[in-house]
Design brief:
This protein is mainly α. The protein has helices spanning 2-32, 71-82, 129-133, 137-140, 158-165, 167-173, 184-190, 223-240, 246-258, 263-276, 281-284, 286-290, 330-338, 355-358; strands at 95-96, 102-103, 121-125, 179-183, 194-195, 211-213, 218-220. Helix content is 39%, strand content 6%. The strands form three sheets. The protein has a three-stranded mixed beta sheet, with no helix packed on it. Strands 1-2 form a two-stranded antiparallel ribbon.
Length: 360
Amino acid sequence: MAKRSTRSRASTRLPKTITGIITAIALAVLAALGIQTDWFHGKPAAPPTERPPVARTTPPPGNLPNTPGTFTAAKKALYEQVYADHRITFYCGCRYDADRRIDLGSCGLESLADKPRAQQIEAEHLFPAAMFGNFRPCWRSPGDFPACAKSDGRTLSGRACCQRVDPVFEAAHNDLMNLVPAVGEVNGKRSDFNWGMIPGEPRVFGACNFEVDSGIRRVEPPENIQGDIARTMFYMADTYGFNLSRQDEQLFTAWSRQDPPDAWEIERTRRIAAIQGQGNRFVENYAALFGKAAPAPSTPATLPAPALVAAHPAGWACGAKSTCGQMSSCDEAKFHLIQCGVKSLDRDGDGIPCASLCRR
C-alpha cells in the first residue's frame, strides 16, 4: 500500500512539473515581447507610462546647418551681421536705420503711418513656421510632452514646445536663410499664407506690389523677389525634408528662372554660409539646377547725386527709390533706370524696367 501511494504521488507531481515548465516558458516569451504579466501573479497592472518626447520627434539629419541656438540670437545675427550695411526691407524695399526705425516714405507706404506695427522691423519666415510645424507632434499636441509643461500647470504653445523638444524644428525656425527683415504690418498681413499668383492687381500697400488674398490664403510677392523666395523654399525643403506640392515646385521653378540671383542675394548667401557653415545650393549652383546662368556678381552701381540730375515735374528724385515695388508707374520706373542709373530695375537687360508695370 505504501509503495502504491508513493507511485501515485509521484505520478501526480510529474504533470505539475511539466505544467510549471510550460508556464515559465510562456511567461518568459511574454516578457520578451514586452507584454505585462503582473496579472498572472495577482499584482495590479502598472499605469501605462508616457512615451518619451524624443521618440515623437524626427531625429535630426547629420547635415543640418549650424543655425543660431535661439530665435533672439538669430534676429541679432540677421540685423547686425547679414543686413548690417543693407538696411532695406525685403518685401517693399523700405529703408531703415541702425535703430530699426523705418522710413515709410522711402517705399511708398506712407498710408501705413498710423499703424503701430508699421513702425517696427520684424524677422519674417519666408517658409512659414506654421507650415513646417503644423504636422509635427510637438506643434499639434504640446500637452503630450512633459518638457512643454509650465510650472503653473499650463502648456507651452505648439511653436514654443517644438523649439524646446524638436531639434529639426528649432534649426529650421532659426535658419538665417529663411529670415528676412520686413515691415511688421506687411508681415502681419502675410500671416502664414502660401505663395502663389493672385488675379488682378489688388494693391493694399500703396506703391508696394505685395498682394494678399486672405480668402484663398495666398500671397503674390513683387516680381523682383519671386526668385529669391523660390530658392529659399527649395532650400528649406532640401535641407530639412519639408514637402512641397507638385504645383509649388512648378511655380517656384518658374519664379527662379524668371528672377535669377542678383548681386545682393549672392552676397547674402555668402554671409549666411560663413555664419552657419552651409550655403544655399539653389543660389550657388543656380546655372546647373535651373538651366541658365545667373548674372555675374557685381558691385551695385552707385546712385548719382540728386543734384546732378534735373528734377522731374512729377517730383521724382534720384536716390530715394531703388526697387520696382517702390515705383507707382512705368514712367517713374523708366526715370529711375535711365536718369538715375538704377540697373536693378532692368533684371533681364532688355531696356524695359519693372515688367509688372511696363508690360501690362
